[in-house]
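Chapter review. Work through the record for CRAL-TRIO domain-containing protein before attempting the end-of-chapter questions.
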Amino acid sequence: MLQIRPLNEDLQKKANEELNEVPKRMPEELRAFRTWIQQQSHLRANTDDQFLIAFLRGCKYSLEKAKGKLDTYYTLKSKFPTMFTESNVDNERFREVVRMGTFVYLPTPLHDNGPRILLFRNGLPSAEKYKVEDVWAVFHVLQDILMLEDDYAVVNGLVMVGDFREFTLAHVLQNTPLLIRKWITYNYEAMPMRVKSTHIAFAPKVFDTLYNIGRPMLPLKQQKRLFAHNNKLESLTQHVPLKYLPKEYGGENGSIPEIIDEWDKKLDQYRDYFKKSVEWGTDEKLRIGKIKDYDNMFGIEGSFKKLEVD
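Structure tokens for CRAL-TRIO domain-containing protein:
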């Protein structure tokens, strides 16, 4: 019997129509996916039904695409663990980034039954205290939890709203082109949740450098889904109506301190899961066929330290 949470009627209809899901075929498709994983000598993966179904849904039930995405997911986690995972969610610095509300998943999906909304505020963690990898590790751990338990995010995708009013030149200088490319590769080639739109709001002038470097690295489809709203809340709310923003922004979609507290407790519940996650990954020495050379793909480390930033 499948160990998968049943979708509500609306989400099941969308999964059928938009993701090519056929419920009666799910056992067979999961079995084929799991068999392939077991045949890969280099790959150690979570093979729980709920985890694997996220990849099948995220790839619209193309088994070949799901294989590639899962392989990339574990390859990048193994290659760059400090950026893409954290096995100890009780790590003090990790919890500090969580508790300041750097990444806040809002409780009500867009239009009540649409994509999950993420409010991200990467300027909150001080660039003097936290490395970029510290901050993104939190993002990716929360993403992993979302993938396991949020059907709206898996079926309908994500709408990401970035509030950059606290972003400084020090933050810009931390975000090297190499780190930006790693983040983009992981989030668009490894994660099964689809980003439906990204909104940049309240960004200071110094953020322009990062925006101009990062935007061309995005897949073309995602470039078209990227919107910059400057300091105009009215521009943002044309895409994300005010009621779907949190109370602190004048909306009705939860209180940020309460959401932070909920996710802090949720991390306690996932403590053992992330401890176990060290058992999963890839061993390139055992890979049959071409090794994924991400060092060459990402290129040489660079920085913005010599750039002129207005």
